[in-house]
Amino acid sequence: MSIMGTTLIDSDFTALFDSGTSFTYLVDPPYRSLSESFHSQAQDKRRTPDPRIPFEYCYDMSPDANTSLIPSMSLSMKGGGQFAVYDPIIVISVQHDLVYCLAVVKSQELNIIGHIEERLGRGQKLAYRFDRLMVTLYL
């Protein structure tokens, strides 16, 4: 797993890919590594966590915000393929202000890469290989 080309987790990392899950859920230490790296590269002011929002890393959206300011993320597959994560954020309205959050929730049990089809790059497709318990990324 990497952000802006910097490897965060350099070991076997097991996760479920679930297109029906709205967000990504990660256990520690992957959750903390990803979140802190994202935060260190975010250019907007971080908001105090709000108990009504399930996301820990949320930021005030600046008037000049655009997707080029969001840190790029990718997952490295066991076979060497790179899976670029597009739109790793969610934009929400909080008391008439726009806020964006890293769309990753801390999990206590397992890693789930959710909402996967919407995060694929153009021309990328996933094939679920249930017989081998693997996911293949086609470019």
From TrEMBL:
<dbReference type="InterPro" id="IPR001461">
    <property type="entry name" value="Aspartic_peptidase_A1"/>
</dbReference>
<dbReference type="Pfam" id="PF14541">
    <property type="entry name" value="TAXi_C"/>
</dbReference>
<dbReference type="InterPro" id="IPR021109">
    <property type="entry name" value="Peptidase_aspartic_dom_sf"/>
</dbReference>
<dbReference type="InterPro" id="IPR033121">
    <property type="entry name" value="PEPTIDASE_A1"/>
</dbReference>
<dbReference type="InterPro" id="IPR032799">
    <property type="entry name" value="TAXi_C"/>
</dbReference>
<dbReference type="InterPro" id="IPR001969">
    <property type="entry name" value="Aspartic_peptidase_AS"/>
</dbReference>
<feature type="domain" description="Peptidase A1">
    <location>
        <begin position="1"/>
        <end position="139"/>
    </location>
</feature>
<protein>
    <recommendedName>
        <fullName>Peptidase A1 domain-containing protein</fullName>
    </recommendedName>
</protein>
<comment type="similarity">
    <text>Belongs to the peptidase A1 family.</text>
</comment>
